[in-house]
Amino acid sequence: MTAFALDGPADRLKSALPRSGSLLRTVTDSIPPSGLVMLGIVSVQLGAGFAKELFAVLPPSAVVFMRIAAGALILGVVARPRLKGLAWRDWAVGIGFGVTLAVMNLSFYEALARLPIGIAVAIEFLGPLGVAIAASRRRLDLLWAVLAAVGIALIAPWQESASVSWLGIGFALVAGACWAAYILLSSAAGSRFPGTTGLSFAMIVSALVVAPVGVTTGGADLMQPSVILIGLGVGLLSSVIPYSLELQALRRMPKHVFGILMSLEPAVAAIIGLVLLGEILHVQQWAAIICIVAASLGATRAGDRR
């Protein structure tokens, strides 16, 4: 989820992996950077797919808590944030970043419970796409906004549908809005916290925010060994692995190429949904995803030319 958040903190993040990750760097150096980005995208969507399978045992809010808690635990160990000497504005940015991350994940997982994964990701992608278009000064970029709107119109359940609901679309739109705020806050956090400690701080705050609702709704089911194992896997696949791969890729490729590859995420999500979850999309829904992917590609390429 960093395709459109790269112009500010990315350069500072390129060397942010800890020294203990030297083995990982050795392995990833043998993989082309485009391959690292695609592996990261697949990892994120696999994590979402496994999380959706947990919905049969736990409500979405409990699954969100498990994912964020696992990510916060791992990142807290790898990149422990230093709280000493922080100004009140640093605290405000870090806490705002964490709360946004919590709401974004809660909204997305609620959307995931009501929509096919490809549709949910496509709608959520409107958040970073909106940030890219809002920063534009070219009339041509209005075309990408229109194309994205066409995609939403094709997704909307104008007729009663068992797989798509207005409530699910609403949750996905909230997640997209939070993703847009996440981009802006990640830039601010990147300037106030060294390396990846800003994200680590935000993940810890996010886990604390989500914990009351997650523990309440999950109850004793959260303590099942199989559920804990899958939750840790979701945290690794959705947060730690893709973020590490993205940082490695950014060391070896231009940011605009990274953004173009990330624009393929909704299509990859739809394929993961088909293969892992058996979610078959109609031709109209595939057309909607293609419209949103095309809008994202256009906005990214236009941003590079500027």
Automatic annotation (TrEMBL):
Organism source for this protein? Nonomuraea mangrovi
Q: Which domain of life is it from?
A: Bacteria
Transmembrane feature ranges: 57-79, 91-109, 115-135, 142-158, 164-185, 197-215, 227-245, 257-277, 283-300
Cite the entry's keywords alphabetically: Membrane, Transmembrane, Transmembrane helix
Q: What is the lineage of its organism?
A: Bacteria, Bacillati, Actinomycetota, Actinomycetes, Streptosporangiales
What is the protein named? DMT family transporter
Supply the Pfam families for this chain: EamA
Q: Note the topology in the membrane.
A: Multi-pass membrane protein
Q: Indicate where this protein resides in the cell.
A: Membrane
Q: Where is the EamA domain?
A: 167-298
Which InterPro entries does the annotation name?
A: AA-Vitamin_Transporters, EamA_dom, EmrE-like
The entry assigns this protein to a family as follows: Belongs to the EamA transporter family.
